[in-house]
Automatic annotation (TrEMBL):
PANTHER family: DEGV DOMAIN-CONTAINING PROTEIN DR_1986-RELATED (PTHR33434), FATTY ACID-BINDING PROTEIN TM_1468 (PTHR33434:SF2). Keywords: Lipid-binding. This is DegV family protein. It comes from Acidilutibacter cellobiosedens. One of its GO terms (molecular function) is lipid binding. NCBIfam families: DegV (TIGR00762). It comes from the Bacteria.
Amino acid sequence: MTFKIVADSSCDLNEELKKEMNISLVPLKIDIGEKYFIDDENLNIENFLYTMGNSKTGIRTSSPSPADFMKAYEGGDEIFVVTLSSQLSSTYNNAVLAKKLTLESTKKFIHIFDSLSASIGETLVSMKIFELIQKKYDKYEIVRAAEEYIKEMKTYFILENLDNLIKAGRLHKIAGRIASLLSFKPIMGSDGSGNVKLFDNVRGAKRAFNRLVEIIGENGYKFENKILGIAHCDALEKAEALKAMIEKKYNFKEIIILRTGGLSSAYADKGGIVLAF
């Protein structure tokens, strides 16, 4: 039996992880005004961020088509697919439709995981699946263990710029403007069902990150058995400082830092930090 992991391009990876897991990423498409970007390995993030920062219009994203997923399902006998939260995108539904169409002509095993998250959350789910494969779990044990992992996973984020979330309808426009005007830093994340939830609203970036570290302790446990992931949008120093703060307080098995890809950068924007464990 050969295994294959597929994810959409919200799954933030570095070259080392991509190579180690041999993961196939199905790209989303991003429109900024009249410019069109494909979120794949050819995307120039610096140019993308520059275009987004100088655009007067909001971004528009398009999910991969069922045909895109069907192509990614080629090869491998047992396919494990990780997608963006189904509450945030039609990507999950398109992956499921692609599975139905694929199984009309093949008997391979395909399971679609709704990550209930995005960005580094998808990364951690993919890493967990890879770990289970390496431990030689069978396909049903992988599904059970990975689904349990998703239920327990926590995702949080702090953004410097709320404009793209507001334009995408993820944050109430008036609340976003008040937060910006008063220098509040909303601490947001997944509500456990894949929707965006406000966890706290703190004045000033330093206090916000201190509060985020506190929230980790209030909502997590058994850190010694868990990997914590931090994804940053052009904010490596901030991510490293956050990692140091977390290491002083908690004993995570490992803390990894990755740069956001195209889709995650589109919503996180410059200075944004996404955290999951």
